[in-house]
Predict the 3D structure of the following.
Amino acid sequence: MTVTAKAKLIRYTENPEGTIALASKLCYSSLGMEELIERIEGADNAKFIRMLKTMNHLSPFEHASFTFSVEGVSRAFLAQVTRHRIASFSVRSQRYVGEGDFNYILPPAIADLGDGAIEEYTKQMETMAGWYTAWQQRLGGGEKANEDARFVLPNACETKMIMTMNARELMHFFELRCCNRAQWEIRDVAWQMLTQALEVAPDVFDGCGPACLRGACPEGKKTCGKASEVKKRYERLKECLH
């Protein structure tokens, strides 16, 4: 059956703003570690975090990490997201987990063509599921059969994963993947992740998102031309969080 993407923030560094501030101030402080930690934990670090971002002093942001569960996404999504190398991924195995009657992702552009197109697409998925099951049986079942039968599965086949990024890499991820030029599926997941990151670390991720939120679009002639719409979407998001 068809499924849709769902990203959920399941773990993150406790007091990410304080952790980032501590990592940065340690470099320039003569205080002992315990005293410095005490000062940081009792302070409002929002202004300091904003200053670090303005200065582009981002290495301290690497000390705060965020872990998301992601499901309802395609193998095509997996190929894209793992290009972000400064991240950790644990992905459901198609070798140890069989894919009989697999879930799949329906591209919106196909859905927009109407019921006839959706029915055709569904039948194609069912056909490939039949191919997969037949090869599993012919190869004797078990993980060795799964290993080779999976070659007939489509990119649309659903996968699930756990994904961890530090705050600096997340900021980079949001800049690339919240952009309208990003593929629709990973863009959807990126906006879900950004929403939840803003909820738990608003000072860290304030202003994060596609580059057009902060200045001119870097895509040149390939720009979507919808920077104003993107900014309005971001403002609506911030309003909902408040």
Notes: The two ends are 36 Å apart (CA to CA). Residues 115-138 form the longest helix (24 residues). The mean pLDDT is 94.
